[in-house]
Design a protein that fits this description.
One of its GO terms (molecular function) is ATP binding. The protein is an alpha+beta fold and about 290 residues long. It has six helices and 16 strands. Strand 14 and strand 15 form a beta hairpin. Helix 3 packs across helix 4.
Amino acid sequence: MSGFGLAGPPPAPSIPGWTHLRTGKVRDLYTNDLGDILLVASDRISAYDWVMPTEIPGKGAVLTQLSLFWFDLLEDIIPNHIVSTDVPEIVEDRAIIVQPLEMFAIECVARGYLTGSGWSEYKENSAVCGNVLPAGLLDGSELPNSIFTPATKAEIGDHDINIDFEAASKIVGAKDAAELRDLTLKLYDTAADFAKSRGIILADTKFEFGRNSDGAIVLGDEALTPDSSRFWDQSIWVPGGTQPSFDKQFLRDYLVASGWDRNSPPPELPVEIVEKTAERYEEAFYRLTGSKF
């Protein structure tokens, strides 16, 4: 069973001049006669490897515009895949035209705080993805240094699996794994410092990299959004439990409390949950960029 539930992925909208390539959990990809890729962020939202049956209005635009903000801020560290933001009107604000990339087959995750699957692993062996950590840390604790915690890339409906650096090296090669690790940590540390200046803790985030036609490593997909990151309010952060967040952790918490078993198609989301999730995404955008969405 796929993460889209019994009905499968929704039909992608027709866009003049573009041919649909594939539909992901939250994005639709198209190509044109030049070989460019139109990357469209939908309003779909996923959690626990399932795509929810209810959309979050405006979410696709928030993700796209926030990614553009970060791509611009971080372009001195690594080039990104952007070709143009001049997109068809039907997908205005929530799409970008990008280079086709040969993507690396690992998720590049950086963590500066202990939570989520990292916290679960730490409780078992005092380490996360092979990174040995000090004793006595709590859920939400800040780490002494940011760590690289890669994961496998799963098909829709399957689980990403946390791996150590050695396993990542076997997948992409030792040289590339080392470069991806160094890039991931530099991007994370730079973004975390900036976010902290805006009163936001960037607890962890996921990057995706690929090679362009010139063979250069390029930052692709999205960057530092509430879908790929955990954003906490610095003013009320207290280690020792779940932190109030500006990301989809709010949705995850609701789903756990709802009694959904995570193995069958998820339920429709109540209006209140949809509205509060949208508010958190927009608040993250405002706090980080200084602009109202």
